[in-house]
Design a protein that fits this description.
Radius of gyration of chain A: 17 Å
Shape of chain A: globular
CATH architecture of the largest domain in chain A: 3-Layer(aba) Sandwich
CATH class of the largest domain in chain A: Alpha Beta
CATH topology of the largest domain in chain A: Rossmann fold
Strand content of chain A: 25-35%
Strand content of chain B: under 5%
Strand order of the largest sheet of chain A: 6-7-8-3-9-10
Largest interface: A-B, 27 and 17 residues
Shape of chain B: globular
Distance between the termini of chain A: 42 Å
Order of helices and strands of chain A: EEEHEEHEHHHHEHEHEEHH
Structural class of chain B: mainly alpha
Number of domains of chain A: 2
Helix content of chain A: 25-40%
CATH superfamily of the largest domain in chain A: P-loop containing nucleotide triphosphate hydrolases
Oligomer: heterodimer
Largest sheet of chain A: 6 strands, mixed
Number of helices of chain A: 10
Strand order of the largest sheet of chain B: 1-2
Largest sheet of chain B: 2 strands, antiparallel
Structural class of chain A: alpha/beta
Chain lengths: 238, 299
């Protein structure tokens, strides 16, 4: 393997006649945390949908572990190790926490108990709330459930859309620690879409800046944190 | 709920011995057979709407397919009733399986209206084909054999029991979990790896297979079928009312709703012949207003 878990070249995608993504080049290496940030409508979530197989690309290539996956169904991508904690959390709100997690292990039904214990270790709150309906959880707990459900399929590439959206700072800090701990213990790659730029750069190794469907900047997170244009535009520090 | 389900099995056992106990059997036989038929239809629809979230307003299209297949096999090819019935159910089920992938790209009311259009269109096609008897329909022989007088009661009882058991299985199985995930959020179901097209198609296939079987028994019961009776939109409406009244997505609700609707309809019909339709309509509206999720509704 090239050491790259995900490699995207010249990717184009959109809805109807509207082109959202224009010539995206991006990669995620083994064990790396990569962040994508940018303004609203810049195509960040659309990009994750394309990688997860929920939206067909118009052109370009998407390679996962050196294999072209453009034609694979979402189910086949999950089987290969791609999991998405989607925007808006996309939980089964009428089902209990545990039922949501069990469904997360749909393709790993033989290891469901083991995976459940693993997820409960990361998110003890979910164990306490396992009989509660997902719709009755707080925003933070729903985000934990969304990430926990994605982990249930034993992914090699975990994608998280809008980690901090609508959550209190203390909850976001806790989630950020858990994300780092997941990477350390599982050794997986994580691709995070995040509007909160300081958070995105704090937890990631590298980052891409999206604007109007293209990548306008990229680099190591440390380097981007020091870059004047980033500090001025996204961190209001100058 | 488990205790209530045990009560349903006792209810089925009671229904099995009722022909020996009720004095005016021809009358009660007709009433109970109608209620059991509606129960089977509502339970079949429950697999699709209750567990998968897809409302097939035109699900009665498969009642027609099952009924016509059974009737044609019996009349034109002299195939005995039971094999004809099984083939009728299978033709209905396989038709649904084949059309499901494109049809079930549509959701909620778009899907509902399209299935209704399918039902009406199929009725027109059948009315214009020679081998289906066109608008003249098909006459079938009157049943003569074991349990004469009770045969159709037992057939509908058997179908209702099978439909109930399938609902119980769906409610508790891994297959049912996949369907419920699709009902809750189809994109989320896809994103955890559920093959939504496959599971939706099977759900539609099972529902249509059961509906086709009911159509086959109905055809033999009434001994004469035509496009109007076999593709009747009012039967679709009645099935949905029974399902909504009892509780969508529950194992017992469709049975309860069907019996309640059929019994109330019978009482109103016998006591208030002139205003039967108005009274029944009002009762349905009141029922839906007072218990919008159905008597046993959970959603």
């Amino acid at each position: 393997m090239s050491g790259k878990v995900l490699e995207v070249s010249d990717l184009r995608a959109g809805y109807g006649d509207v082109e959202i993504l224009r010539s995206i080049h991006l990669h995620v290496s083994d064990g790396e945390i990569v962040a994508i940030f940018g303004s609203n409508g810049s195509g960040k979530s659309t990009f994750l949908k394309v990688v997860a197989g929920l939206l067909r690309p118009w052109g370009g290539s998407v390679r996962y572990m050196d294999e072209h996956i453009e034609e694979l169904s979402p189910e086949e991508r999950v089987r290969r190790g791609i999991a998405l904690a989607a925007e808006g959390r996309k939980l089964f709100l009428g089902m209990s926490v545990e039922e949501n997690l069990l469904l997360g292990s749909w393709i790993k039904r033989d290891k469901v108990r083991e995976n459940l214990e693993r997820v409960y270790e990361y998110f003890p709150q979910l164990r306490e709330k396992r009989k509660t309906l997902a719709g009755d959880l707080s925003g933070g707990q729903q985000q934990m459930l969304s990430i926990g459900r994605a982990l249930m399929s034993e992914p090699r590439l975990l994608m998280i859309d809008e980690l901090s959206l609508g959550l209190a700072p203390a909850v976001v800090d806790r989630l950020a620690q858990i994300i780092l701990s997941i990477r350390e213990k599982e050794g997986i790659s994580i691709l995070v879409v995040e509007q909160e730029v300081s958070l995105a750069l704090e937890i990631s190794d590298r980052a891409y800046v999206f604007d109007l469907g293209t990548i306008v900047d990229e680099g190591s997170s440390e380097e981007l944190l020091r870059r004047d244009s980033i500090r001025r535009t996204y961190l209001s520090l100058m | 709920m488990a205790r209530l389900e045990k009560v349903i099995f006792i209810f089925f056992a009671v229904l099995a011995v009722l022909p020996l106990l009720l004095p005016d059997w021809p009358y009660w036989g007709r009433v109970l057979s109608s209620a059991l038929m509606l129960s089977s239809l509502a339970l079949a629809q429950n697999v699709l709407l209750g567990y998968t979230g897809y409302p097939a307003f035109g699900g009665i299209a498969f009642f027609g397919i099952g009924g016509y297949t059974t009737a044609i096999l019996m009349k034109s090819y002299s195939v005995p009733f039971l094999p004809s019935l099984l083939v009728g159910g299978m033709v209905a089920g396989f038709t649904a399986l084949i059309i499901a992938p494109p049809l079930m790209r549509l959701k909620s009311h778009y899907f509902a209206i399209t299935t209704l259009a399918l039902q009406l269109a199929l009725g027109e096609v059948v009315a214009n084909l020679e081998f289906t008897g066109g608008t003249d329909g098909i006459n079938l022989p009157i049943y003569r054999g074991p349990f004469e007088g009770y045969f159709f009661h037992f057939m509908f009882l058997f179908l209702a029991l099978i439909s109930f058991l399938i609902n119980l299985w769906v409610d508790r199985s891994v297959f049912g979990y996949a369907l419920k995930a699709i009902r809750e959020d189809e994109v989320a179901a896809e994103s955890v790896g559920v093959n939504t097209v496959l599971f939706k198609s099977f759900s539609f296939g099972i529902s249509s297979f059961l509906t086709g079987l009911v159509g086959g028994v109905y055809a033999y019961w009434i001994t004469y079928i035509d496009p109007t009776s076999m593709f009747d939109p009012l039967l679709s409406v009645k099935t949905f009312v029974a399902l909504l009244l009892g509780g969508v997505g529950t194992t017992i609700g469709p049975l309860l709703g069907a019996f309640l609707l059929e019994m109330v309809s019978e009482i109103v019909w016998s006591g208030l012949t002139e205003v039967h339709g108005i009274i029944l309509g009002l009762l349905i509206v009141l029922g839906i207003l007072l218990v919008p999720r159905g008597i046993l509704g959970v959603r």
